[in-house]
Structure to design on (872 residues):
């Protein structure tokens, strides 16, 4: 009986490991910008990301992946669910909808719903306890903590509006200018960045 | 057969644990407490003060407190002095950074204009407790009124 | 300015009456005696104002090794200079040499005196003419850049005008501010207002009373009288004080005292801080006032927008040059559209009359093709300039007799062909044959706006202020730029303020 239990357990663990590995690989392979960009409408975001330290523009060249910030990390089921849901929704918009109608600049107002604090804290976890950041940063991060769990809860992206995508609004403007008088200039900028980031899968306009 | 199903169930649970374990470990660190940085002074925010000194929408959303900006000015809002740009820039970085973020406005970008470069003080246009203005409209009334150059000053 | 109501102006009248009453009771206390003063800060030189004049004075004095403090009451440095058009007349300049233009001090004086109706003080003019090339060098040393080619402006008999690369006076002010900031013996203070002079026993000016953290109130009727913000400080100026506080176009009280014919509510192209409190303090001290009632109108503005706006540049470049200005009631021309600013403004006010019958400036597509597209686009987008397919449509829009308008246009086109305007003497030989006949047509309502105060303080060739009491310089007191008077006489020629400000700023810095 004991032996049987042991065997079953081992098999279980084995299956578990394989399952984990497959999940891990599957998730991993589908987590970087090169995969996401296949379906998601995100050329300006990719460009702004590549210009940012989070996209490898720092001295070390280290970078975070899309999913590191844009998927919840507190719970694996939530993670997988959100990922799958986003995939389906955005994939269908990509295939059947009109992505050019999306007002990305307006969407930034809801950034707290698509940037997840636990993703940020994965790397910046010590921010909330460290003494090395500026006094001002310490003050505001303390404020963040004091609001956590209340109805006034704020998020990393509430203040760090551009984190992960350097000067995001500029890049979005290259694609959809907010000001008529800047149209021509923005178009030029767009072709400049399309040229520069072609190797990241950024589409060059005909 | 029943036994078997039970065991598979156990195994699956275990496998999930493997995946979840590292995640739960990580999230444990997050809640560690940091030192209390609040100053000695505190301001009791009465409804009256709230109405008299309303915050800008974005700042209200962050539940900013009086003393975040009026640091070291006692605890009587009536006696607070207007803050200078140094205070704004503690959160907003540098004027150059702000100018760069709004580069898409182009030539009329008031944070880096032909007239003033990055030299203007924030509070030439941006007010916290009353409606902001647009200084450019002194000479460029139409360009501002028609939103040709920029939007309403936040 | 635009939202000041008549009712408010009644209040303003009461206010100024109050000020006069107050002045009477405190006569004699026009300057603070040094004896009772405890200084908060000490410098060699205090400069009041941060435009061209203040900057040239600050940099020149500082490079002599003096410790200089430049104060500016507004939050924004640069006064009118930073919103100015960047046109800078230089006599005997390097670009004139390169372009083969023959200039001379005599020719410059001749042009200035003609526009100034011979009222100009030629002692001052000669200094400007002789030193304008030095002033140009100073700006270039600080980093100012200019367009390749010289411009030829109205009233100048030859091309002598430089244009900054940004087409704004800021193209000079910004580099100079940057340069001054880097000098370790210079302190720049904005939101700091001059309130009073401090003198010693001999009457020499040895310091100033200022207010730090002064916040100019854009909404006040009379900021100078009403605004009590800021903390008073006493500043020692060991070598003296240089006034560079500009003109007083935005000073309703002072300009009304000088010329009651100027409507109280009229608009100006000047910055809100262009007020006369520094001039008035200097007058209290005994400075000689010169030609204070000669105030210049800019004829190229629009009643449909504030200040200089989008119409001014359109009119300067297109309608006045290549088009005509007509009376709305008659559909007829009434002036030489390229006469000097004074002549045109007077003619326009004549037409505007009591019932705000604003004249219409008109040109066609051929004129618009000649100018920078940006100017037209902006003026159209702002709605101040309008576009019409036919002259009939234009006439209808402005409720003008169409037949008369067409007759007027026809006559004008004839003058262009004949290269001679027998009616008003517009120099049509210079309009490159552009007539008004290529649709679409452009129209815009015109009104002159207050632009420049020719009057102010009288200085000698060392930029020292002359006293009515002694008829000699007031010791320790210098001035430069728009705050001065008598240099431009009855009408200042375009691009002649920048050299005036820079040269006398330099001269003040050299002599202090
Ligand atoms: C729209 C516009 C376009 C122009 N274009 C041209 C051009 O192309 N070419 C040309 O030659 N001229 C031009 N002019 C005229 C010229 O710009 C001005 O005459 C010149 O800038 C005056 O310079 P300034 O240094 O004397 O005074 P300003 O540049 O006006 O500076 C004076 C400063 O003193 C400050 N001040 C006043 N009172 C006090 C006080 N009590 N305490 C502290 N500070 C005080 C003011 O706030 C101001 O900032 C233009 C003017 C305008 C308005």
């Amino acid at each position: 009986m004991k032996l049987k239990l042991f065997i079953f357990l081992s098999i279980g663990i084995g299956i578990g490991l394989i399952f984990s590995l497959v999940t891990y690989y599957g998730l991993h392979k589908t987590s970087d910008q090169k995969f996401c960009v296949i379906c998601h409408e995100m050329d300006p975001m990719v460009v702004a990301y590549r210009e940012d330290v989070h996209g490898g523009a720092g001295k070390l060249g280290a970078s975070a992946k899309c999913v590191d910030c844009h998927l919840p990390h507190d719970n694996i089921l939530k993670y997988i669910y959100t990922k799958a849901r986003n995939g389906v929704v955005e994939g269908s918009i990509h295939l059947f909808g009109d992505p050019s109608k999306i007002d990305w600049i307006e969407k930034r107002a809801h950034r707290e719903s698509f940037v997840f604090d636990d993703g940020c804290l994965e790397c910046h976890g010590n921010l909330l306890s460290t003494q090395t950041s500026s006094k001002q940063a310490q003050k505001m991060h303390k404020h963040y903590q004091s609001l956590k769990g209340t109805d006034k809860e704020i998020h990393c992206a509430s203040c760090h509006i551009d984190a992960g995508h350097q000067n995001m609004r500029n890049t979005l403007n290259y694609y959809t200018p907010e000001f008529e008088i800047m149209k021509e200039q923005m178009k030029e900028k767009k072709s400049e960045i399309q040229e520069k980031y072609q190797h990241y899968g950024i589409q060059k306009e005909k | 057969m029943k036994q078997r199903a039970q065991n598979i169930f156990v195994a699956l649970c275990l496998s999930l644990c493997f995946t979840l374990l590292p995640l739960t470990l990580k999230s444990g660190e997050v809640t560690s407490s940091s030192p209390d940085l609040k100053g000695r002074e505190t301001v009791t925010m009465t409804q009256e003060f709230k109405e008299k000194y309303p915050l800008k929408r974005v700042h209200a959303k962050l539940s900013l407190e009086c003393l975040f900006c009026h640091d070291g000015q006692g605890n009587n809002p009536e006696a607070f002095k207007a803050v200078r740009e140094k205070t704004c820039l503690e959160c907003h970085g540098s004027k150059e950074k702000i100018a760069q973020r709004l580069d898409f406005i182009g030539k009329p970008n008031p944070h880096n204009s032909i007239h003033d470069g990055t030299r203007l003080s924030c509070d030439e246009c941006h007010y916290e407790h009353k409606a902001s203005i647009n200084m450019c409209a002194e000479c460029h009334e139409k360009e501002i009124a028609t939103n040709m150059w920029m939007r309403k000053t936040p | 300015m635009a939202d000041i109501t008549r009712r408010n102006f009644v209040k303003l009248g009461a206010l100024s009456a109050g000020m006069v009453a107050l002045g009477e009771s405190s006569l004699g206390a026009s300057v603070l005696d040094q004896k009772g003063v405890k200084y908060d800060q000490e410098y060699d030189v205090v400069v009041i104002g941060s435009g061209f004049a203040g900057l040239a004075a600050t940099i020149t004095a500082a490079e002599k090794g003096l410790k200089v403090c430049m104060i500016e009451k507004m939050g924004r440095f640069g006064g009118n200079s930073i919103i100015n058009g960047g046109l800078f007349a230089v006599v005997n300049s390097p670009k004139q040499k390169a372009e083969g233009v023959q200039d001379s001090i005599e020719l410059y004086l001749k042009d200035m005196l003609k526009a100034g109706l011979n009222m100009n003080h030629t002692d001052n003019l000669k200094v400007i003419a002789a030193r304008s090339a030095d002033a140009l060098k100073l700006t270039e040393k600080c980093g100012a850049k200019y367009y390749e080619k010289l411009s030829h402006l109205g009233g100048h008999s030859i091309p002598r005008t430089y244009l900054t690369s940004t087409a704004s006076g800021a193209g000079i002010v910004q580099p100079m501010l940057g340069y001054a900031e880097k000098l370790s013996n210079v302190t720049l203070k904005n939101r700091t207002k001059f309130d009073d002079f401090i003198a010693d026993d001999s009457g020499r000016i040895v310091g100033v009373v200022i207010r730090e953290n002064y916040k100019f109130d854009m909404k006040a009727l009379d900021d100078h009288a009403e605004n009590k913000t800021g903390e008073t400080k006493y500043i020692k100026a060991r070598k003296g004080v240089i006034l560079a506080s500009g003109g007083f176009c935005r000073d309703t009280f002072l300009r009304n005292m000088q010329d009651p014919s100027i409507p109280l509510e009229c608009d100006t192209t000047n910055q809100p801080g262009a007020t006369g409190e520094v001039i008035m303090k200097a007058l209290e001290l005994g400075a000689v006032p010169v030609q204070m009632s000669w105030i210049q109108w800019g004829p190229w503005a629009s009643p449909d927008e504030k200040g200089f706006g989008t119409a001014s540049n359109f009119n300067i470049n297109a309608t006045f040059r290549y088009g005509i200005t007509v009376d709305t009631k008659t559909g007829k021309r009434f002036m030489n559209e390229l006469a000097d600013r004074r002549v045109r403004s007077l003619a326009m006010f004549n037409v505007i009359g009591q019932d705000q019958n604003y004249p219409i400036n008109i040109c066609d597509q051929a004129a618009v093709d000649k100018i920078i597209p940006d100017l037209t686009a902006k003026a159209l987008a702002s709605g101040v300039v309008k576009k019409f397919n036919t002259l009939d449509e234009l006439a209808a829009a402005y409720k003008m007799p169409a037949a008369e308008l067409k007759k007027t246009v026809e006559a004008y086109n004839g003058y262009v062909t004949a290269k001679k305007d027998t009616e008003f003497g517009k120099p049509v030989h210079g309009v490159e044959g552009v007539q008004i006949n290529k649709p679409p047509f452009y129209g815009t309502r015109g009104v002159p706006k207050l632009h420049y105060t020719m009057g102010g303080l009288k200085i000698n060739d060392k930029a020292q202020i002359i006293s009515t009491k002694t008829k000699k310089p007031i010791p320790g007191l210098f001035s430069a730029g728009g705050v001065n008077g008598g240099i431009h006489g009855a009408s200042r020629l375009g691009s002649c303020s920048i050299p005036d400000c820079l040269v006398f700023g330099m001269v003040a810095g050299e002599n202090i």
Notes: The two ends of chain A are 70 Å apart (CA to CA). Chain A touches chain C through one residue (CB under 8 Å). Residues 97 and 187 of chain A are 24 Å apart (CA to CA). The first helix of chain A runs from residue 2 to 29.
